[in-house]
Amino acid sequence: MRTTIILTMLALLILSGCSDSTNKGGKAFIGGTEGLRTSFLGGNPPNEIFDNRQSTFAIVVKLENIGEDDIDANEGFVKINGLDPGTYGMTTPKKFFETPIPGAKKNFDGSVLNGGIATVEFGGLAYVPSIQGNLVQQVWADICYKYTTKTTTQLCIKKDPQLLLGDKKICDVEGEKYPQNSGAPIQITSLKESFAGNGKIGITMIITHLGNGDAFFDPRGDLNEPSACNDVESNTQRGKIKITVKPVRIGNSQVTPVCTGLSDMTGTNEGYLRLYKDGSGKEQFSLYCTIDASSTDSIFEVPIDVEATYLYLQHINKELTIRKSIG
């Protein structure tokens, strides 16, 4: 019995150590893979209405910011599909967010301040025509909004593999660095560091779509345009995001990373890329950047910050029964 207890305790310690290593330093953010959590406000729309203007109702979409990015007013919209606007007396099927929706925040003591909640309402609706018999229609609400993922990772700065060889008390260049992501649907799921030669450090980032939304788009898209967040294969803006790999402080200098694989670049560390589906169906991209560490003969850790910005599309839907009124 005693041997069994000891073996069980050892197994728990090993599992605990594995858990710590895969979440190393994961305390900078609240985390999670959601941006907005969306739903219909209870009873809006109702389950059933009558035809011939006998029932007045509203469609109210609740927007709760579960993630950690702030959404400004007019940085998102709700569009009602599935219903003909004229049939329901709907003046417009598309409305913008009227108020800012702040993201969740992590306080210094580790407590969490929940994100903001807003609603978008389509009121004064009624089914105008008379019908021969009951029918069912689908209320479909598309929600599109701008969102940013923030990531921070500790890098080991050492220009030469021979520098302090074998001394890993401070840090080690080679290997996985366990990036920490803010709560958002697109994340850097891996960041590996390596020596790149000539006093440079190489970093390879895997950017992955982890959210449950329908699609994401180039953040330069104009939300006022009818094509905004249009989830069709022919939309060349689909699957694109903006990436900014921020400068790293080494000594008294801000060293700007040099990245390959970006398009429409602003400098060497900022541009756009498209995520592609891999064999498992995940949408990903592998980005490689180098950082010049030749100015230092020391070994130390520094944070590197990355931001990914995109338009994000998700939807909610509900059946609406229209009953024939009698009399």
Tally of strands: 22
H/E series: HEEEEHEEEEEEEEEEEEEEEEEE
Q: What's the Cα radius of gyration?
A: 25 Å
Shape: elongated
Task: Please give the share of residues in helix.
Answer: under 10%
Counting helices, strands and paired strands, the structural category is mainly beta
What are the segments in which pLDDT stays under 50 over at least 5 consecutive residues?
1-26
Fraction in beta strands: 35-45%
Q: What oligomerization state is this entry in? A: single chain
- Give me the number of helical elements: 2
Largest sheet: 9 strands, mixed
What would you note in describing this structure?
The chain is mainly beta and 327 residues long. The longest helix has 21 residues, at 2-22. The chain contains two helices and 22 strands. Strands 2, 4, 5, 9, 11, 14, 15, 19 and 22 form a nine-stranded mixed beta sheet that branches. Strands 10, 12, 13, 18, 20 and 21 form a six-stranded antiparallel beta sheet that branches. Residues 1-26 have low confidence and may be disordered.
Main traits of this protein?
327 residues, mainly beta, Immunoglobulin-like, six-stranded antiparallel β-sheet, 2 helices, 22 strands, disordered N terminus
Question: How do you describe this structure in short?
Answer:
This protein is mostly beta strands and 327 residues long. The chain has 2 helices and 22 strands.
